[in-house]
């Protein structure tokens, strides 16, 4: 009798609980097109950014062809009419301001998931202090090269030869709150480099608690070094529970695709899969569209930022948006009546901005699609965190957040 109860009634009860919690929707797919900003925020100058707009820059490329996102309402978003508004958008749409004091991946994703960060994470425009580097050298047994803000491709070409000769690690940062370690895969195998990152992560706490420690493996020979796809991020844990925790704690699925698992240090996820670029990320997301799950699938597509934004490649960025847009049409065919699709970003990285190669302080766009979605303009919202508030409201989940739900406006 106990075996019958365990094998039949418990799964039935769990299934009923899931239906009760999320009686409005079964699945939500939340896409972050990493760095796809929608125009500078009013305080952009405080972050060193002037006249920046990632989508506007992409619109100057002949390679940009995004009819599906335009049909959803992307060009109807306030300030994005240069993309071409449509008479009857298929989705709900808006742009959102960042309430957190930052313009980086970690803070942006945390706010999307409901956590506003009033204080910026530490940055190191003059390199890391000895109180960080000394214990790092002692724990790894290796010296440190560079120790300054650098472009990731430039720093390996500048210090690659010395690294290969000495075995010293290339440590650098950027305008973001990051501690990056580059090493040639023949000198330091990726698994060893990951261990060095874990060591750094333990050191970088408290006032030196950077958002991410990033492994940056590379290959090649003198004058021709290239980074590999074996990058790995080791993030600071979110300061409190996020939308991901709300799903997990309710017994629902909380699936992370791409670097989402790393950004949240694994907190709040029930399942995760890494990706090797946008194309791989879209393929793995398409596979989840064929699965029967109940809850959240949170996807980051990193190539927009990593390959095209930081490298100031307008045509590359535009072509990547075109690829996603074409894929989106096929993806939407797999959506059922209880599925919700949201497409947004986490910050800007204007590929036409030449003052720096860093992220840019911008609004983010938001498109919302689904059979039950009421099309319309949600205006300009004051927090990324409204996304988490809305998703949790749709699924009947409690979440401590400053975000405001717009569920009633879209369903």
Which CATH architecture of the largest domain?
3-Layer(aba) Sandwich
> How many domain modules?
2
Strand order of the largest sheet: 10-9-11-1-12-13-2-14
Query: Uncertain segments of ≥5 residues (pLDDT<50)?
Result: 1-22
Q: Characterize the largest beta sheet: strand count, sense, and whether it forms a barrel.
A: 8 strands, mixed
CATH superfamily caption of the largest domain: Alkaline Phosphatase, subunit A
Helix content range: 25-40%
Written as H for each helix and E for each strand, in order along the chain, the element string is: HEHHEHHEHEEHEEEHEHEHEHHEEEHH
Q: How many beta-strand segments?
A: 14
Apparent shape? globular
The fraction of residues assigned to DSSP E strands is: 15-25%
In short:
It contains 14 helices and 14 strands. It has helices at 2-21, 54-59, 67-72, 105-112, 130-140, 152-166, 190-203, 243-249, 260-263, 278-289, 303-309, 314-332, 386-394, 407-410; strands at 27-33, 92-96, 144-149, 169-173, 178-184, 212-221, 224-227, 232-235, 253-257, 271-273, 295-301, 339-344, 364-369, 376-381. α5 crosses α7 (190-203), α10 (278-289) runs parallel beside α12 and α11 packs antiparallel against α12 (314-332).
Descriptors for this entry?
single chain; 411 residues; alpha/beta; Alkaline Phosphatase, subunit A; Alpha-Beta Plaits; 2 domains; eight-stranded mixed β-sheet; six-stranded mixed β-sheet; 35% helix; disordered N terminus
Topology:
Layout: H1 2-21, E1 27-33, H2 54-59, H3 67-72, E2 92-96, H4 105-112, H5 130-140, E3 144-149, H6 152-166, E4 169-173, E5 178-184, H7 190-203, E6 212-221, E7 224-227, E8 232-235, H8 243-249, E9 253-257, H9 260-263, E10 271-273, H10 278-289, E11 295-301, H11 303-309, H12 314-332, E12 339-344, E13 364-369, E14 376-381, H13 386-394, H14 407-410
Parallel strand pairs: 1-11, 1-12, 2-14, 3-4, 5-6, 9-10, 9-11
Antiparallel strand pairs: 2-13, 4-5, 6-7, 6-8, 12-13
Helix pairs in contact: 5-7, 10-12, 11-12
